[in-house]
Specification:
It is a single chain. By secondary structure, the protein is of the alpha/beta class. The strands form three sheets. Strands 1, 2, 3, 4, 5, 14, 15, 16 and 17 form a nine-stranded mixed beta sheet that branches. A four-stranded parallel beta sheet has the order 6-7-8-9. Strands 10-11-12-13 form a four-stranded parallel beta sheet. Helix 2 packs parallel to helix 3 and helix 2 crosses helix 14 (441-460). The protein has 14 helices and 17 strands. It comes from Streptomyces termitum.
Length: 462
């Protein structure tokens, strides 16, 4: 979708503004001017007078304006397998669901992607990502279906093109027909990058190289994936240190823990981010800090699968880039990132640092600038600053759920999920009063339900 013309301005006034810039600048009542797809100016008080070509003025009284939320880990296809295996740990959950996931096809993936994206976008996500790693033979153009859904929704998007080459016969978890060959996975990943990746400042679609996890990929795929990502100049992503079972698996198979294993294959670095990172010792955190490897923190999924509490305060203190992730909606049925602001704060306070673990502004930073860092987009999104892309959200904080919380950032993070009055991506509004403007939500819900039922029937037939 084309960006709005640079000579057309939108003026937002009378808003509380949390910029999440390097100084955490905030305005109790301020303005923000959007010109085309960029933030032109912002500050306290009223907008400058005599602005030309103002096509819209928004009185944002009673609202908090923040950068759009950035999701750093997800599996869209799981939207059509929600509510299953609800009392399982990670390994048992994977064993229970892989036989179903191995039967997905292009229509299912398209419907699931639309559902996942719609739920996130409606709740303030402006930059999304999907780690898709299940490519059953004959299933169609799954990457194209996912990228098409994101384009239709109007969100900024990173496809982490995943892969698996270690099936049950090789000691992995996925069924044999759900994995690719090592060579096939690398070739398909390279083709996806060359076809879809846009390296420009205002890119709407980017692609990362993303082998799935230590227990579903070969060492060769991990090592060659890192080399491929660096040759193509794109980021890399995988799962790491999610459970104690994974740690045991890595020690038994590779003779070392997950972090040392990743480093031995070249899969640590400032161009890498890792999902979960729950079971990290001091040495692991130091390695991530030294290499500037990023972390996608998924608090609800970690709790849902009883994985544990990630050491986010220690990571942040060490200088590790950390963002927030929904994770697949088979392990986070709500599929909403704005609830992860609250969950990240509350769950981390159950850990060793207790009430000093995270505060409201740190949680907001995780969900905005931290996520942009992890995805390699911090120069263009993640904070409200002149010259950055116009990805921003107006949260209503003067209604029933928030009006008695004086501080708007505290209201957003500690309070109930705040209504989204408006969400802009690339200067284009995609949400108004909690409803999507680019797609029909009822149609998406109906189609996703139809495909979920079709998948359940196919899986039941074996």
């Amino acid at each position: 979708m084309a960006a709005p013309s640079a000579d057309r301005r939108i003026v937002i006034e009378n808003a509380a503004i949390a910029t999440v810039d390097a100084h955490d600048t905030e305005y109790a009542s301020g303005y923000l001017v959007v010109a085309g797809n960029r933030i032109e100016s912002l500050g306290p008080g009223r907008a400058p007078e005599n602005l030309e070509n103002v096509v819209r003025r928004i009185d944002a009284t009673g609202h908090l304006v923040t950068p759009g939320l950035v999701n750093t880990h997800h599996h869209f296809y799981q939207w059509i397998t929600r509510g299953l295996a609800t009392d399982h740990n990670l390994f048992d959950w994977l064993v229970a669901l892989y036989p179903t996931w191995a039967r997905i096809d292009e229509p299912m993936v398209r419907a699931a992607a639309r559902g996942s994206l719609a739920m996130m976008a409606r709740g303030g996500v402006t930059t999304a990502m999907d780690h898709h790693y299940v490519f059953p033979r004959g299933s169609g153009d799954l990457s194209g279906a996912i990228i098409g859904a994101a384009s239709e929704m109007g969100v900024r998007f990173t496809l982490a093109r995943g892969s698996m080459d270690r099936s049950e016969k090789d000691g992995g978890l996925p069924p044999d027909f759900a994995v690719e060959t090592t060579e096939g996975a690398l070739a398909a990943t390279e083709e996806t990058v060359k076809r879809y990746h846009d390296a420009s400042f205002d890119a709407m679609t980017q692609v990362a190289v993303a082998p799935c996890s230590p227990f579903s990929i070969s060492t060769e795929l991990l090592r060659e994936g890192a080399a491929l990502g660096r040759r193509l100049g794109v980021r890399m992503h995988t799962h790491g240190s999610e459970t104690v079972e994974e740690e045991k698996f890595c020690h038994e198979l590779f003779g070392m823990g997950p972090t040392d294993y990743f480093e031995s294959t070249g899969f640590l670095g400032e161009d890498v981010w890792m999902a979960h990172c729950v079971h990290m010792n001091d040495s692991d955190i130091a390695a991530f800090a030294r290499t500037k490897t990023g972390v996608a923190h998924c608090p609800s999924s970690n709790a849902r699968l009883a994985a544990g509490i990630a050491r986010v305060p220690d990571m942040l203190k060490a200088g590790v880039p950390v963002g927030l992730g929904v994770d697949g909606t088979a392990s986070n049925e709500s599929g909403e990132l704005h609830t992860e602001l609250r969950n990240a704060l509350l769950i981390n306070r159950l850990g060793a640092h207790r009430e000093a673990a995270l505060n409201a502004r740190q949680a907001l930073r995780l969900g905005t600038y931290g996520g942009a860092q992890v995805l390699g987009r911090a120069d263009s999104v993640g904070s409200l600053e002149a010259g950055k892309l116009a990805d921003l959200v107006l949260w209503k904080v003067d209604g029933l759920g928030h009006s008695t919380i004086a501080d708007p950032v505290t209201a957003l993070v500690f309070g109930a999920a705040a209504p989204v009055t408006a969400s802009f991506v690339n200067g284009r509004q995609i949400v108004e009063n909690d409803h999507l403007l680019t797609v029909d939500e009822d149609t998406i819900a109906r189609e996703a339900r139809t495909e979920a039922q079709r998948l359940a029937r196919i899986a039941a037939q074996g």
